[in-house]
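Aim 2, interim progress. The first record below pairs a target sequence with its C-alpha coordinates.
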Amino acid sequence: MINKNCLIAEMVVIRDQDHITKILNGKHKQEEFVTAPVEIAENVWIGAKASILKGIQIGEFSVIAASAVVTKSVPSFQVWAGIPAKFMKQVTTTD
Protein backbone atom coordinates (compact mmCIF):
# COMPACT_ATOMS: atom_id res chain seq x y z
CA MET A 1 0.00 0.00 0.00
CA ILE A 2 1.29 3.44 -0.91
CA ASN A 3 -0.27 6.20 1.16
CA LYS A 4 -0.87 9.87 0.36
CA ASN A 5 1.71 12.53 -0.49
CA CYS A 6 4.57 10.17 -1.35
CA LEU A 7 7.25 11.16 -3.82
CA ILE A 8 8.49 8.19 -5.85
CA ALA A 9 11.21 8.89 -8.41
CA GLU A 10 11.83 7.13 -11.71
CA MET A 11 12.93 3.48 -11.96
CA VAL A 12 11.97 2.59 -8.37
CA VAL A 13 11.29 -1.13 -7.84
CA ILE A 14 8.77 -2.23 -5.20
CA ARG A 15 8.69 -6.04 -4.82
CA ASP A 16 6.03 -7.87 -2.84
CA GLN A 17 7.23 -11.35 -3.81
CA ASP A 18 10.18 -13.67 -4.34
CA HIS A 19 10.16 -17.02 -6.04
CA ILE A 20 11.58 -20.29 -4.83
CA THR A 21 13.40 -22.49 -7.31
CA LYS A 22 14.57 -26.04 -7.05
CA ILE A 23 17.04 -27.88 -9.21
CA LEU A 24 15.50 -31.00 -10.63
CA ASN A 25 17.43 -33.25 -12.99
CA GLY A 26 20.04 -30.54 -13.55
CA LYS A 27 17.45 -27.88 -14.56
CA HIS A 28 15.90 -24.96 -12.69
CA LYS A 29 12.19 -25.21 -12.16
CA GLN A 30 10.15 -22.47 -10.52
CA GLU A 31 8.05 -23.98 -7.75
CA GLU A 32 6.20 -21.17 -5.96
CA PHE A 33 6.10 -17.53 -4.94
CA VAL A 34 6.63 -16.17 -1.43
CA THR A 35 4.72 -12.93 -0.90
CA ALA A 36 4.53 -10.27 1.81
CA PRO A 37 2.89 -6.85 1.57
CA VAL A 38 4.84 -3.59 1.35
CA GLU A 39 3.51 -0.54 3.19
CA ILE A 40 4.72 2.97 2.46
CA ALA A 41 3.35 5.53 4.92
CA GLU A 42 2.33 9.11 4.12
CA ASN A 43 4.90 11.72 3.05
CA VAL A 44 7.69 9.28 2.16
CA TRP A 45 10.29 10.23 -0.46
CA ILE A 46 11.92 7.41 -2.45
CA GLY A 47 14.88 8.33 -4.67
CA ALA A 48 15.56 7.12 -8.21
CA LYS A 49 16.46 3.46 -8.77
CA ALA A 50 15.76 2.46 -5.14
CA SER A 51 14.51 -1.08 -4.53
CA ILE A 52 12.04 -1.93 -1.76
CA LEU A 53 11.82 -5.66 -0.99
CA LYS A 54 8.85 -7.73 0.19
CA GLY A 55 7.46 -7.33 3.70
CA ILE A 56 8.94 -3.86 4.25
CA GLN A 57 7.21 -1.01 6.06
CA ILE A 58 8.49 2.54 5.55
CA GLY A 59 7.39 5.00 8.22
CA GLU A 60 5.98 8.45 7.59
CA PHE A 61 8.27 11.32 6.54
CA SER A 62 11.15 8.94 5.85
CA VAL A 63 13.56 9.30 2.92
CA ILE A 64 15.03 6.42 0.91
CA ALA A 65 18.14 7.51 -0.99
CA ALA A 66 18.66 6.92 -4.70
CA SER A 67 19.83 3.38 -5.56
CA ALA A 68 19.23 2.11 -2.00
CA VAL A 69 18.14 -1.50 -1.51
CA VAL A 70 15.76 -1.63 1.45
CA THR A 71 15.88 -5.04 3.15
CA LYS A 72 14.57 -3.99 6.61
CA SER A 73 11.61 -1.87 7.70
CA VAL A 74 12.37 1.84 8.09
CA PRO A 75 10.99 3.79 11.09
CA SER A 76 9.32 7.18 10.67
CA PHE A 77 11.44 10.35 10.26
CA GLN A 78 14.64 8.61 9.12
CA VAL A 79 16.94 8.75 6.10
CA TRP A 80 18.23 5.39 4.80
CA ALA A 81 20.82 4.79 2.06
CA GLY A 82 23.15 2.13 0.71
CA ILE A 83 23.18 -1.49 -0.40
CA PRO A 84 21.74 -2.83 1.76
CA ALA A 85 20.11 0.34 3.06
CA LYS A 86 21.00 1.44 6.57
CA PHE A 87 20.14 4.34 8.85
CA MET A 88 21.95 7.59 7.99
CA LYS A 89 20.23 10.28 10.06
CA GLN A 90 16.99 11.56 11.56
CA VAL A 91 14.72 13.78 9.49
CA THR A 92 14.45 17.15 11.24
CA THR A 93 11.11 18.88 11.49
CA THR A 94 10.23 22.55 11.78
CA ASP A 95 7.07 24.21 13.01
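The second target in this work package is listed in the same format:
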Amino acid sequence: MNWTVTYLVGVPQLDKDHEVIFEELEKLYYLLKEGGLHEDMLEQALLIRKEARLHFAGEEALMEWLGYHEIDLHIAEHKILMEHINGFIDEIREGLIPSEKELQSFVEDWLYRHIRDEDMQYAHMVEQLQRKSLVG
Protein backbone atom coordinates (compact mmCIF):
# COMPACT_ATOMS: atom_id res chain seq x y z
CA MET A 1 0.00 0.00 0.00
CA ASN A 2 1.83 3.07 -1.25
CA TRP A 3 0.59 6.60 -1.79
CA THR A 4 2.06 8.15 -4.92
CA VAL A 5 1.61 11.31 -6.96
CA THR A 6 -0.31 9.28 -9.54
CA TYR A 7 -3.32 9.70 -7.23
CA LEU A 8 -3.26 13.51 -7.36
CA VAL A 9 -6.40 14.93 -8.96
CA GLY A 10 -5.15 18.51 -9.18
CA VAL A 11 -7.43 20.01 -6.52
CA PRO A 12 -5.14 20.72 -3.56
CA GLN A 13 -7.69 20.20 -0.76
CA LEU A 14 -9.05 17.00 -2.25
CA ASP A 15 -5.53 15.70 -2.90
CA LYS A 16 -4.65 16.38 0.74
CA ASP A 17 -7.86 14.65 1.86
CA HIS A 18 -7.02 11.58 -0.21
CA GLU A 19 -3.53 11.41 1.24
CA VAL A 20 -4.76 11.85 4.83
CA ILE A 21 -7.40 9.13 4.40
CA PHE A 22 -4.82 6.82 2.89
CA GLU A 23 -2.45 7.45 5.82
CA GLU A 24 -5.26 6.70 8.28
CA LEU A 25 -6.17 3.50 6.41
CA GLU A 26 -2.51 2.52 6.51
CA LYS A 27 -2.48 3.00 10.30
CA LEU A 28 -5.50 0.70 10.59
CA TYR A 29 -3.77 -1.82 8.35
CA TYR A 30 -0.74 -1.92 10.65
CA LEU A 31 -2.95 -2.22 13.74
CA LEU A 32 -4.58 -5.26 12.14
CA LYS A 33 -1.25 -6.69 11.00
CA GLU A 34 0.50 -6.21 14.34
CA GLY A 35 -2.46 -7.31 16.48
CA GLY A 36 -3.12 -3.88 17.95
CA LEU A 37 -5.58 -3.16 20.71
CA HIS A 38 -9.23 -3.60 19.80
CA GLU A 39 -10.04 -0.08 21.11
CA ASP A 40 -7.30 1.43 18.94
CA MET A 41 -8.67 -0.33 15.87
CA LEU A 42 -12.16 0.97 16.53
CA GLU A 43 -10.91 4.49 17.17
CA GLN A 44 -8.89 4.39 13.93
CA ALA A 45 -11.85 3.08 11.90
CA LEU A 46 -14.09 5.83 13.32
CA LEU A 47 -11.48 8.44 12.38
CA ILE A 48 -11.36 7.07 8.83
CA ARG A 49 -15.15 7.32 8.60
CA LYS A 50 -15.07 10.93 9.82
CA GLU A 51 -12.35 11.91 7.33
CA ALA A 52 -14.14 10.11 4.48
CA ARG A 53 -17.47 11.82 5.23
CA LEU A 54 -15.84 15.25 5.24
CA HIS A 55 -13.95 14.49 2.06
CA PHE A 56 -16.97 13.12 0.20
CA ALA A 57 -19.06 16.15 1.16
CA GLY A 58 -16.39 18.51 -0.22
CA GLU A 59 -15.90 16.46 -3.36
CA GLU A 60 -19.64 16.23 -4.02
CA ALA A 61 -20.03 20.00 -3.53
CA LEU A 62 -17.27 20.60 -6.08
CA MET A 63 -18.86 18.21 -8.56
CA GLU A 64 -22.21 19.95 -8.13
CA TRP A 65 -20.59 23.35 -8.68
CA LEU A 66 -18.86 22.02 -11.79
CA GLY A 67 -22.12 20.60 -13.12
CA TYR A 68 -20.43 17.22 -13.33
CA HIS A 69 -22.63 14.97 -15.46
CA GLU A 70 -21.74 11.75 -13.58
CA ILE A 71 -22.42 13.14 -10.10
CA ASP A 72 -25.18 10.64 -9.25
CA LEU A 73 -22.96 7.68 -10.11
CA HIS A 74 -20.09 9.19 -8.17
CA ILE A 75 -22.25 9.76 -5.09
CA ALA A 76 -23.41 6.14 -5.35
CA GLU A 77 -19.73 5.09 -5.36
CA HIS A 78 -19.16 7.16 -2.23
CA LYS A 79 -22.07 5.39 -0.54
CA ILE A 80 -20.54 2.01 -1.38
CA LEU A 81 -17.17 3.10 0.04
CA MET A 82 -18.92 4.32 3.20
CA GLU A 83 -20.75 0.99 3.50
CA HIS A 84 -17.37 -0.76 3.46
CA ILE A 85 -16.02 1.57 6.15
CA ASN A 86 -19.16 1.05 8.24
CA GLY A 87 -18.75 -2.69 7.74
CA PHE A 88 -15.24 -2.54 9.19
CA ILE A 89 -16.56 -0.54 12.16
CA ASP A 90 -19.39 -3.03 12.73
CA GLU A 91 -17.00 -5.98 12.59
CA ILE A 92 -14.64 -4.38 15.08
CA ARG A 93 -17.53 -3.45 17.42
CA GLU A 94 -18.70 -7.08 17.31
CA GLY A 95 -15.26 -8.25 18.33
CA LEU A 96 -14.36 -9.45 14.86
CA ILE A 97 -11.15 -8.24 13.31
CA PRO A 98 -11.21 -7.51 9.57
CA SER A 99 -8.45 -9.30 7.74
CA GLU A 100 -5.45 -7.38 6.46
CA LYS A 101 -6.28 -8.70 3.01
CA GLU A 102 -9.86 -7.36 3.25
CA LEU A 103 -8.61 -3.90 4.20
CA GLN A 104 -5.89 -3.96 1.56
CA SER A 105 -8.48 -4.89 -1.07
CA PHE A 106 -10.64 -1.94 0.03
CA VAL A 107 -7.68 0.46 -0.14
CA GLU A 108 -6.72 -0.80 -3.57
CA ASP A 109 -10.29 -0.38 -4.81
CA TRP A 110 -10.42 3.16 -3.46
CA LEU A 111 -6.96 4.22 -4.61
CA TYR A 112 -6.39 2.28 -7.74
CA ARG A 113 -9.87 2.36 -9.11
CA HIS A 114 -11.98 5.09 -7.53
CA ILE A 115 -9.42 7.90 -7.35
CA ARG A 116 -7.54 7.03 -10.50
CA ASP A 117 -10.58 6.28 -12.64
CA GLU A 118 -13.59 8.04 -11.14
CA ASP A 119 -12.08 11.12 -9.46
CA MET A 120 -9.89 11.86 -12.44
CA GLN A 121 -13.04 12.46 -14.50
CA TYR A 122 -14.03 15.59 -12.56
CA ALA A 123 -10.35 16.51 -12.20
CA HIS A 124 -10.23 16.97 -15.97
CA MET A 125 -13.11 19.45 -15.71
CA VAL A 126 -11.21 21.44 -13.06
CA GLU A 127 -8.11 21.42 -15.25
CA GLN A 128 -10.10 22.74 -18.22
CA LEU A 129 -11.58 25.54 -16.10
CA GLN A 130 -8.12 26.48 -14.87
CA ARG A 131 -6.83 26.64 -18.44
CA LYS A 132 -9.78 28.79 -19.53
CA SER A 133 -9.17 31.23 -16.68
CA LEU A 134 -5.52 31.55 -17.70
CA VAL A 135 -6.42 32.13 -21.35
CA GLY A 136 -9.45 34.35 -20.74
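The radius of gyration is 16 Å. This observation will shape the mutagenesis plan for the next reporting period.
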